[in-house]
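Input chain follows. Return structure tokens only.
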Amino acid sequence: MALPVGAGVVGLEYASIFATLGVEVTVVDKRDRLLEFVDAEIVESLSYQLRQRGTTMRLGEEVRQFTCSEGKAVAELASGKKIVSDLALFSAGRIGATAELGLT
């Protein structure tokens, strides 16, 4: 099982790759909707395709802590639920590295 945390473009890209390869995938994101900047009809189609490939969506959930136990990644959610997986991919957010570019 794979656990992408973050349902942005990168997280969903990896989720779709893993799911297409037959890996059981659970996506966790604290937002209630996937890709807010994309048309709702397109997002619904994407969600449907991911679900058809066995992907579980845990929207409106936040990961409080990651631990490793017996070679498994354990994500503890704010709701108290725990998700145990073979691997976890954290892709929630990015920071631009522009400080040294001299931009004004």
